[in-house]
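quick one before i forget lol
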Amino acid sequence: MSGLFNWFLQIGSITKFGLMSLPQRRGSAAATIIGIAGVVAVLVGVLSIAAGFKQAMTVSGSPDGAIILRSGADSEMVSGLGRDETRIIADTPGIAHNDPRSAPAPTPMCRCAGLKPAPFKSATI
């Protein structure tokens, strides 16, 4: 029990020394506080973006919609279908189409949900 009490006394002494010497090191203390606050703000921002993106990928969409992925694709972001493939899918029986004589139904559509790399331009003259 004596060792634990001694440990708390040492922590109290070090804390008291640090707080007492704070007026002599205002600049470095302010820089430390601003730096830590900046890192926390960036971390919260990145985590917020990640959480929003995850929610958008899991929650959005209607219950009668279907997502068709290319074979071997793990998610919507890594799948890509060409114009011919999307026409074949749209013409498949069971896919709803707009018919002007009946009630409006959803039209098959293709969305681009990925990034396309820009072509490399040579720097030679």
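fyi The longest helix spans residues 26-59.
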